[in-house]
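Before a colleague's protein record goes any further, I have to sign it off. Thanks in advance; the entry in question is below:
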Amino acid sequence: MNSKAYSLKSYRTLALLCLGTIGLWAYTAKPFVDPGDLPDENRFTKVVLAEKLNEPLEMAILPDERVLLVERHGDIRIYSPTTRQLKTIATIPVSTKYKDKEGHETEAEDGLLGVNIDPNFEKNHWIYLYYSPAGEAPKNILTRYELRGDELVLSSKKVLLEVVTQREQCCHTGGSIDWDRDGNLYLSTGDNTSPRATLYAPIDERPERGPWDAQKSSGNTNDLRGKILRIHPEADGTYTIPEGNLFPKGTPKTRPEIFTMGHRNPYRISVDKHNGYVYWGDVGPDAGEDSVGVGPTAEDEYNQAKKPGFFGWPYFVGANKAYYDKDFTTGKGGVQFDPAHPFNDSPNNTGLRDLPPAQPAMISYTAAETKKFPIMGSGGRSAMAGPTYYKDDFKNAKRSFPDYYNGNVFMYEWMRDMILAVSFDGKGDMTKMERFLPNMTFSHPIDMAFGPNGDLYVLEYGTGWFLKNDDSRLVRIEFNAGNRKPSIQVAASQKAGAVPLKVNLSSAGTKDFDGDALTYQWKIVSKAGGQPTVLSEPNPTFTFQKPGQYKAILTVTDAKGLKDSREVDILAGNQPPQVALEITKGNKSFYLPGQPIAYQVKVTDKEDGSLAQSGATPGRILAKQVMVRATYQDEATAQNVSEAGHKFSEAAYLGTGQALMEKSDCKACHFTDKKSVGPAFMDVAKRYKGDANAVASLSNKIIKGGGGVWGDAVMTAHPQLTSPDAGEIVKYIMTLSDKKTASPSLPTQGTYTPKENEKGILVLQASYKDKGANGLPPQMAEQVLMLRSPLVALGTSNSQSKGITLFKMGTQPYPLVVVMGSDTYVKFDQLDLTGIKTMEFAVAVPKAQLNAVGGRIEVRIDSPTGQLLGQTEQLQPNESKDPAAMFNQSMAKASITPTTGQHDLYFVFKNEKAGKSPLFVPVTVQFSN
């Protein structure tokens, strides 16, 4: 592995390491409020009401707490809190596909898109649906139906509004419905424009290119697309126009229904019933970088409209960052649009040329980390807006939310699975933004609403686009302001073994958040039936005499009678095998490319016997029944494996590319063997098989975004990924071009030679699954050994260090170490130094900004003053003031006294003349034989 892979990014490092910026970084890292003001997260409970939904999109909570929800393919469903069942009450025929330019049908975003109930639902029983009706007519319609009990009266249908659309080459539907306190209905619509022509502003004015020109819709004052509409439904199924929309009724070349315009895809909107402010998330474009003469990096937006207005698309994004008036015929950029004086001179425009001034986004963020809003993190983007909570609306509710959230708007991020609580002052200006329940997991939340009981309902779409996802759910978040259930932990000293099986059962870690006294009851229940055994101690011991499958159920009750239960499964009658994997020759901490590692596996099983190292001895375990694998993982994934205790299934050990993919948002749009919103990975691999440039071109596409190869599917930019990481993902995808079986197992005894140019952790794994016994299922055991890459980033130390400052930069995979003075150190626990003869350090010594004075690095073992194994020469300051050069790294080598065995390793930083000045920034150390 080349040390250049860990090189500093000069400008970004400069910004973080200059002393003034250190203070700014610390300030922005502070929470907006004292965490003590926050309600305890354990007072919130997530209750799953229904699972495995088929593309749920929007819901409405009925006055009796039933939940009405719609699924994209046309199903209307109701969840009953009485029966605790979800049932389909009607299916609306809808269009869900479009035809590409070759005439092939492709999944579209159309379908049954939105639902809400009338403000006077208890009297009139009206519900409103927004959908794409089946048939050839390209349109979406807003309809009203009567809901009589659980019956949708289809004959009661009234069509209030039609939105003419394009169904070829298209997308971006919007479709969210909400109300204000005056009975006005708000409907969001998307720009209905293909992003295929460009990752920036789709303003293609060439003849016959209307599908690729959002000026026909979002920028058109005479079109209902790319808007938030406001109308007042009337009893006869028509609507009137309320006063105060963007264009007065009768204004030429305008539609009076328009409240706000200039939206790309305002997929979820919310109206504050107290002040009438409208909130929405606008799902942004796909460009991964600024482009001179074209436009800015793509951003998603959270917006607020206190009054009608134009919000920029397709001429501006985020804080009014402007695009250029590009000529798609010549490919040249024209003038940059002016947010104070936007204009629409497209031949596809049927409205006004001069548009209202563009309004900047309230919150905007890119795929990479955003300095102004670091809470957003990085990753895919899909901004959505949820409800505003007011405590006065829930005075008689069973479980109203705490006063802390009074006046908060709940925003959420579909791709990043996060919910945000946003606060405002009396003028409606944002004052703070923080994560809501950051430790609670969600699977792509797509709608949120408060119910009459004060609970927050969340509709989770699930992992993949256009699929019936197993992790798609309707859930309810309940707040408990009073006595809380005991928090239970259960454990068993053994979960499987031969009989008689003596098991120590433990409730250690069980607690009551309210400080109540607790009583404990264990029940030992056999799957075969019979009378359970009851034990009343917190930590009893029980001996299982008969083979079988059992549950040990712990019920804990507090002093007020509130109880909860947890259980642990016990298999009595089949002893799990024992697997031992040992390195018999070679370094046990590092792998050195090209240097063989000798290993041996031993397996014993009470019922099956022991491993026969050669031959096929009857009654013994054969070598071919033992799985031995060697794989490489990135450092972070392998560290998670290490911290979890080294006992994992084979699926836990992924290659570097697959591990990076698992941590990314790739699976939101792609599956391995079936199409989602993007192509199947196997299809990508087959298309590019044999293409020598595939890794480079596809890596670039992953980072910068792109489209045009797979119909209208567009790859969102991922600028947070480095080129090497994107390359590893592509390399993994390319392995899927053929359905190959897993690589064959290594021998149970032999040598493994690490590959050249590998990075991260080498994971050696041995496992064996026994044959089962006494009618019980097989048990598997495994052992894992992990060997580090010989190139180690000093910032990856997980041990106690002294006198250093750590900085994590954006997507940098490890923190940087800044040595703040002499006689300081970085420590690594228990490293094997067998065969290590040299250590070479990559160090930056920037004088201009860090005021670094240089120094030397000593290598010591067992303590900071322990045996000196070697040291570098004195590192001198880099005098350059050029930002591109001042953080260049120097290479400093130390010869090491031969040492065997494992030791705590200390890198001690010295400069007796440094005073209080920083010394340098040691980046990596290369261990060599």
Q: What stands out?
A: The longest strand covers residues 151-164. Residues 789 and 830 are 15 Å apart (CA to CA). Residues 1-36, 636-654 have pLDDT under 50 and may be disordered. The two ends are 15 Å apart (CA to CA).
